[in-house]
Amino acid sequence: xxxxxxxxxxxxxxxxxxxxxxxxxxxxxxAGRQYFxxxxxxxxxxxxxPEVLRAKIRETVGLLxxxxxxxxxxxxxxxxxxxxxxxxxxxxxCVTPVGWLERMTQYKEKAAQQTSVSTGLLDYPxxxxxxxxxxxxxxxxxxxxxxxxxxxxxxxxxxxxxLYGETFVLPDIRIPPVGARIMGLDDPTAKMSKSTQRxxxxxxxxxxxxxxWASIRRAVTDAGREIRFSTEPAKAGVxxxxxxxxxxxxxxxxxxxxxxxxxxxxxxKRAVADLVIMTLGPIQTRYDxxxxxxxxxxALLQKGADTARQRAAVTLRTVKERVGLLALPxxxxxxxxxxxxxxxxxxx
Length: 348
Description:
This protein is mainly alpha-helical. The chain is built from twelve helices and five strands. About 35% of the residues are buried.
């Protein structure tokens, strides 16, 4: 079984990111082949400072490794290093009705906030579908907010299969049982957003202990004192803190409620902050070590790109044949792709 995950090269440094990665890392030996793709092309749906984007791509790779992704067990690569992603996206564009894209909730929400909407924002889910279908993925672990996009991926694959014959695996959607939807610390009625820049909204994976404590100490709760999991809107803040605690501790809801019985919100916040700091400390240490050896990081990315290109080429050749494109042997050149010089080693 192939399982695939993708990570935004710019916006993914939130605690919710780690809660997902940890479960993937722990299952690398038993889950079959796993693909971890840093989706830098998706980041271009809004303007990015080129130098900042290049740095963020590296940082995302470093954080994935620091969080436990093992390149000896899983394939880790950067999206733009494998041109087959965009080639397949164009073919899928040609079988995807515009109405399907216009119905996407994330598109409608983001478009409503902009005076001019890019084609990339509308077309984002088709490239995401290509990212997934290219590797004949069987299972895609995502947060609840990505369910609609994964359902669209299945629809696109089904439509292509209907038109041209069985080509793509229809991937199953896997929602993590805990931590699939961590809410904003400053607004527990809204998801902890990767793009929100408000102070104290979220915990970043590279935040220091003081920053983490400041964010959690200011987390919105309520006027009561009872510490329990609840679906009541009034208890959303407390439930969010308990969810973070559960995701990092691995304890059951009953165990956690028993532990905090009779305690106040201040004690809950301190316990959550201590657990977050204890969890992220070793990750930050590993990350710092990884980022000091940029040549090794480049070598890893080169190897990942070479392997991903070879695997992607199999599906892409089939797709081209199915739709009637004329293939030439020289076109399917699988020589290793060199990283751009701007991503090369610059020294310390």
